[in-house]
Write a structure and sequence with these properties.
single chain, alpha/beta, Rossmann fold, Arc Repressor Mutant, subunit A, 3 domains, two-stranded antiparallel sheet
Length: 323
């Protein structure tokens, strides 16, 4: 009996006039392997300007958006850019037929112009949040979030947050292990949840002990997720009182130490379920989530599924991707 090969996920990246080269490069780097990627021109003539006097050309036009499973809109130039009506129509059509639509940074203005963000929560760079509210008052702008996943519509803040959102999409499609492998290939920091704060306000210079940041403390904790870790231990390694450590952690990481630990433990459990045959109780123990019952409760509350169902789903996805 012939094995039916699953169709690859088709990604179309809209090539905007005067787009940010960084936000254009991010989806190309993340979705360049394991997906079917196409760059799509949005201006007549097939060639478009880019910063630094560059001209970008692509063999695909807006017709590629009509066949895409995922459409990515990178950052647009804020001054005087008017999205072409044909692009806005193509985005509306793609969304209507069930494609996911993702924007990076100020690309949210293009989605808003197409009416796709009306009544939705959306992220953009914190510097553009007030302007997005002014131009599109029906959008519920979240200038704190790194990214917002609203199901079929996904939006991110700028620069590094664009990478976070694209890796989040890989995680949704192929699981945590696949996303972690892409992250290792790109040599970037571990996964950040979308509700972590994107903006760290200016503050006085830290004490000498804290100049290097919390990275050594976080690395120490990641190597010991299998055992209980107290806030007192973490603050002691940082050379701070627990109260000072909590404030410093919230400013630098964007969440509380306990929430961060629970997220890392859940991420470890997901990776073990995807890449090993360990029983659920052993996965729970190695990830620091206690018993199998505790792991099941975490999965049900956070992911809406069971560890066994999660393993079946992403083992199947990974086997298909390797074919």
């Amino acid at each position: 009996m012939d094995v039916v090969q699953p169709k690859p996920i088709r990604v179309a990246v809209a090539l905007l006039e005067e787009t940010s080269l960084f936000e254009l490069a991010v989806p190309c780097a993340v979705f360049g392997e394991g997906y079917e990627l196409a760059l799509c021109g949005t201006a007549p003539g097939g060639a478009q300007r880019a910063p630094g006097g560059l001209r970008l050309e692509t063999e695909h036009g807006l017709e590629a958006l009509r066949a895409a499973d995922l459409v990515v809109v990178p950052a647009c130039m804020m001054d005087g850019y008017e999205p072409p009506a044909a692009l806005l129509g193509a985005l509306r059509d793609a969304h209507a037929r069930g494609a996911r639509i993702a924007s990076l940074c100020s690309g949210a203005f293009v989605l808003a112009a197409a009416g796709l963000l009306d009544g939705r929560e959306a992220a953009t760079h914190w510097m553009y949040a007030d302007e997005l509210r002014r131009r599109h008052p029906r959008v519920r702008v979240n200038e704190q979030a790194l990214y917002v996943d609203d199901g079929s519509i996904l939006t991110s803040a700028g620069t590094a947050a664009a990478i976070d959102l694209c890796l989040h999409i890989v995680r949704r499609d192929f699981g945590s292990a696949a996303a972690a492998e892409v992250g290792r290939r790109m040599v970037i920091a571990p996964h950040r949840e979308g509700d972590q704060a994107q903006y760290v306000p200016p503050r006085p210079a830290p004490a000498a002990r804290a100049v290097e940041g919390l990275a050594p403390v976080l690395d120490w904790a990641l190597a010991r997720l299998h055992r209980p870790i107290t806030i007192a231990e973490l603050s002691g390694r940082a050379g701070m009182s627990t109260r000072t450590f909590g404030r410093h952690f919230a400013r630098e990481v964007g969440t509380t130490p306990l929430k961060w630990l629970n997220r890392q433990r859940l991420a470890r459990a997901r990776e073990l379920l995807e890449t090993t045959d360990l029983p659920v109780d052993a996965v729970a123990e190695r990830s620091g989530l206690g018993s199998g019952d505790g792991l099941r409760q975490h999965f049900h509350r956070t992911l809406g599924t069971t560890p066994a169902a999660y393993r079946r789903t992403f083992r199947g996805v990974q086997r298909a991707a390797r074919r």
